[in-house]
Amino acid sequence: MIGYKSIKRAIDVVLAIVGLLCLWPFFVLIAVVIKLDSKGPVYFKQKRIGENKKEFYILKFRTMKTDTPKEMPTHLLENPDFFITRLGKFLRKSSLDELPQIINILKGEMSIVGPRPALWNQYDLIQARDEVGANDIKPGLTGWAQINGRDELPIEVKAKLDGEYAAKISLAFDIKIFLLTITSVIKSDGVKEGMAHHTEKAPDIKRSSINQ
């Protein structure tokens, strides 16, 4: 595993650079449409938990209105449709809002494949991941839990899957997850918005900021 971690980082950098070179026209187009669609910045930053529980700021294209409750997972909002912008619905369903995380990957804060980074205040998830070693590796743009339920998964199941990935991490496993992610994105598997679809306890929140 130690040897693969070095190779994994090299693969991440190469794929991220190739991704930026190929996708920069989409970055520009999406940025322009976001500005035309609603008031607010193009990008959204949010504090997340990275490797060894080091905090970092994840980057996404903004999909929410500027008065959305702060630091709350969108699937826990009582009425998420009220906060999601018109363009945001498309970006979220297609996962295009995640593209700026290529920058997080280049900075070494994330990997292509790994557990999705938890919010800093998702204490139950962070603790559950501690117990299975999932906080000891870089979080990913996609992951084993992502293609096995995503927002539909309860915390204990999500952490178990993240732990399985941490224990079995390999090039073959990463390739499998990457390919299955493409299928999952096309089908929009596991994408749920609002508390009606989820039983996770909501963290304390503050208003007047942008949410994921």
Describe the structure.
This protein has one domain (2-197). 45% of the residues lie in helices and 9% in strands. The chain has 7 helices and 4 strands, in the order αββαααβαβαα. It has helices at residues 2-37, 80-83, 86-94, 101-106, 123-132, 155-168, 171-187; strands spanning 43-49, 55-61, 111-113, 140-142. The strands form 2 sheets. Strands 1-2 form a two-stranded antiparallel sheet. The protein is globular and about 45 Å long. The two termini are 33 Å apart. Residues 195-212 have low confidence and may be disordered.
As residue ranges, the low-confidence spans are: 195-212
The number of helical segments is 7
> Any idea how many domains?
1
Instruction: Give the neighbour order of strands across the main sheet.
Output: 1-2
- Between the first and last Cα atoms, what is the distance in angstroms? 33 Å
Mean pLDDT: 85
Describe the sheet with the most strands.
2 strands, antiparallel
Helix content: 40-55%
Shape: globular
Using DSSP, what is the number of strands? 4
Strand content: 5-15%
- The sequence of SSEs as H and E is HEEHHHEHEHH
Rg over C-alpha atoms, rounded to the nearest angstrom: 16 Å
